[in-house]
Design goal:
The protein is largely without helices or strands. It is built from no helices and 2 strands. A hairpin with a 2-residue loop joins β1 and β2.
Length: 73
C-alpha cells in the first residue's frame, strides 16, 4: 500500500510538515519542486519579559508630532 507524506528536505534533514510515517526504515521517492517557500515559524516572546512593556502615549495617535519623524522627511 502506498501512502503520501509531505516533508521538506533541508541540509540533510527531513522535516515533516504534518503526519509522519510510523516506520523505522522505508524506501522513499523524492520529488523536487523548483521553488518551495518554507513555512514561516511564528515567534513568541519569552515568558521572562511578560508584563514589562509600557504604553508611553495614546495607542491611536503618535507620541510625537509628524514634523519630528525622520522617516517622513
Amino acid at each position: 500500500m502506498l501512502k503520501s507524506y509531505e516533508a521538506i528536505y533541508d541540509n540533510g534533514q527531513v522535516k515533516w510538515l504534518g503526519e509522519q510515517p510510523s516506520v523505522q526504515s522505508a524506501r522513499v521517492i523524492v520529488t523536487v519542486l523548483e521553488e518551495t517557500a518554507l513555512p514561516v515559524k511564528r515567534r513568541f516572546p519569552p515568558d521572562a519579559i511578560a508584563g514589562k512593556g509600557k504604553t508611553l502615549g495614546d495607542l491611536v495617535s503618535p507620541i510625537v508630532d509628524e514634523e519630528d519623524w525622520e522617516c517622513l522627511k
